[in-house]
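Section handout 9: paired folding examples.
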Amino acid sequence: MKRTESFMLNALKAASLVLAILCDGRFGALRSSEPFHVDAALILAVDISQSVDKDRYRLQIEGMAQALENKAVADAIISGPYGRIAVQFIVWADGVETTIPWQIISNEQNALTFSGLIRRQTHRAGEYTCMARMMRIVDGGMLDDLPFTATRTILDISGDGIDNCAEPAAIDDARDRLVRRGVTINGLPIIVSGENDVVGAGAYRAPGFGLRPLSHDPGVETTLDHWFKDHVIGGRGAFVQPSQGYEEISRAFQQKFLTEISSVVFEPRRYHELGSH
């Protein structure tokens, strides 16, 4: 991406966030010199690879929207020291696209509004499951110059397959780079019985990449949730929340949101450094 294009993209993201803040009656207009803090910056990364057809995509985003509309999730969001989080929605397959820039959720109405934005997302068809590439893009441009300060940054990855664009070492490296930046990576593997519950044999690989051992010994198969544990999640408090099929995904998203939002631990020293709100 050219420098001018990158600058314009960052400007648009910042403008979207400022508009969300100004439209939030709780905060009103913020002075330019006033720091803006959130308890968590949550990047929702949704799989749109070839295995995710229109019906599965719709089930995936509907489940996410329903989970955010749950009162317990909204209560968890406002229970933090700052009582608000920032959320961004991206889709990924061969590439990555930000379809909902950073928004602030500070109450139940904000959560309902964001759920509505998610439901309005149209299906985008990808092909390969390039998870390592997605992580590198997040690391390379989505975490710089954020218009807020977050106590925690969480990359929330949902998907129904393993990375089929690169070897496991590539995703391990991409994960470790994010973790070194203080990012927590959580995973929601969508397990479809008889289709992807066991992975590592006959996997669909992008051209130029043959099958590689996915586990500790050559030729050992593994389950999708264990592959997420071995290669995807990382950072403080990281966890895997499996969904048993697309039909159960709303429950899985709800449990995952409750766990990761509630895990934003109050740190007295950091809170003192940032100043009270």
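Moving on to protein 2 of 2.
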Amino acid sequence: MSSVCRKALIEIGTNSVKFLLAEKDDRLGKQIYIEDSNEITRIGEGLAESGRLGEPPMDRTLDCVRRFIAKADALGVRDVSAVATMALRRASNSRIFVDRLKAKTGLSLRVLSGEEEAIYSFYGIAPLLPVGSDGWYFDTGGGSTEFVCFEDGRVVRAFSLEVGAVSVTEKFMLSQDSCGNGVEAALRWIEGSLEEGGLPSEKGGSFLVGSGGNVITMAAVSLAPERFSSSKTVRLSLSELDRQIDLYGSVSLQERRLIPGMDFDRAPIILAGACIVRSIFNVLEVKEMLVSSFGLRHGFLNTLFD
């Protein structure tokens, strides 16, 4: 007789909170994802300027975590874990949120290092890589971007840089209407930050895989009116990136939200996200990337079943 085990993970990112629930059947020997959802709470709002987590962002995020715990409970799952990324790594008052979360929900929050975040994110997409592939993987979020250089599907180097869509949006005011003038400055700053952070120190292969909410949104915009699905193989080209950057920078925020395929709540930071991906293309000298909807939450949750 086979036994089925269910677990859930809550991932608190700078821009959004993600919830993943999976089950593993011992007989089948693999995980099946039951629920995969997210809410944008922007716990990192204002962090770049103040160095602290604000009370309203912490409250929004705590309320979201409570909703996800309730969802897990409704699905019969009591084994819920929680991890956090750059905003909690960087904020001088992160302990306040960690303690508050424990008191209100009973969850012990694990704040991942940048290297841990990169490696667990890579674990999430590794099963999808072609056999024997060499290249680069990145996951770009609200506060940071994680990178893994891999050879034959194995990690050669993993690191994190504090270049994220929320911080870049705030620094170059890219959520404002018709903000194309800030794009060139943002691209120069991002590319310089990537190079200073050591991105090209190992060239790796030409194969590039990217994940993260902004990457998924850009893929959805490229496919519209067809809907994006994790079961589809989607690639983003350099020319498509340039088209989207020009589009986002030339319209108002309200018009951005109406673009087919756009995530309404992600519209304020999508231009910064696209600039980050464009800069990665420049530094690594690639013309195309494979889009993955898998990432940190999948890689970390899978290890909990081991």
